[in-house]
Amino acid sequence: MKISDNRIDKGKLFDWGMTSKDYSKYRDIYPEIFYQKILEKNLCIAGQSVLDLGTGTGVIPRNMYKYGAKWTGTDIAENQIVEARRMSEENNMDIDYIVSPTEELIFPDNSFDVITACQCFWYFKHDINLKRKPINTNNYTYLPKYSSTWPKPTPGVQTTPTA
Predict the structure, then answer these.
(1) CA neighbor of 84 nearest in space, from 125, 135, 123, 28
(2) Residue 46: which residues within 8 A CB-CB, separation 6 or more?
(3) What's the pTM value of the predicted model, to 2 decimals?
């Protein structure tokens, strides 16, 4: 799917799916300390259901699968999901993957305990309000930072449990 964003290359079209084969080979980029920081917050562990937005080739779900959470990864680019499924299946990982823009996802209320989004958050359409609340009331939305640039905080996005 081709995407245009005026903040990126002056709005020229781009397609993450065109990079999927290379991403699957060369973009497992996060160091172990990145995952340890997530675990230190008791996130993405056994007994939790986790939604990974902008999952790409499933790097976060695949690397954290061993900690026991039930993962669902979503991405707008079909070829990214194809590679994510392939690599998960090759490693006998039961991870659900969905091709969809984040803003069009529909899940029943309280479907997830944790939502992650890493290096993709700025591509979302922040002016669209989701019609459902797919996360439990005592929840985390965790936006792990692994980038030299990061958007300004978006109202309503929490990185701590809700009260």
Answers:
(1) 28
(2) 67, 68, 69
(3) 0.74
